[in-house]
Amino acid sequence: MTSSHTSKKQETKQDLPATAWAVLGLLSFPGERTGYELKKWADSSLRFFYWSPAISQIYAELRRLEELGYASSARSGPQEPRAKRRYTITGAGRAALSRWAADTAEAGPPVLKHGLLLRIWLGHLAEPARLRAMVGEHLERTRGELAAVREALEQAADVPQWAFPGLALRWSERQHLAELELGEALLADLAELSPQDGADGRQAGGDAPTPG
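Request: output the structure for the sequence above.
Response:
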C-alpha cells in the first residue's frame, strides 16, 4: 500500500459524516442487526432528536464502514427462509466510535428547519384561517410524536444498555412538550393580528424588517 493511499484512507476515517457515526453507534449496542432492523431502530430513537436516514443511506454507510474495517457482516444460515446480511461493529470500529464520541471539539449548533414557521413568515400571502389551521395540524402531529417518544421511553426503561439513549429520549420528550407550548402561543399570537396586519407583504412604512 502506497503512502498516498494510506493517508487517503486515514483522512477518510477522520472525515466520516455524522450519519456514518450514527449508524455505527446503532451497531455499538449488543447483538447483530440487519439494515432493516437498523432502520427500524433509527425510526424509534434517532429521529426524535437527530434524524432517521433512509434505508438506502443506511446501507451506503454500512458499506463504507465495512470498507474502513469498522463493521463486518455475514449472511444468515440456511435455517432462515430468506438469507439476511447481519452487521456488527468491529473492535476497530468501537475504538474509533469511542474516540469520536469523546471528542472535545464543538459539536456544532442545532439546526432548526421549521417548515411551519417558514409559512408563518410568509403569512401575508395566506388567509388567516388557513394559517391557524396549519398550526392546529402541527400541534396534532406533535402530540402524535410525543406519544411515540413516550412509547420508546417505556421500551427503553427496563434495558440497562439503553440508559443513555433513554436520556436522549427524555430530552426529546421535553422538546416536544415545549413545541406544543410554542404552538399554542403561536395560535394566540395569530388571534391578536388584525386582518390588515402584513397586508400586501409590507411592514409599517413599507420597509423590510431588518436593521439598517
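Residues 125 and 136 are 19 Å apart (CA to CA).
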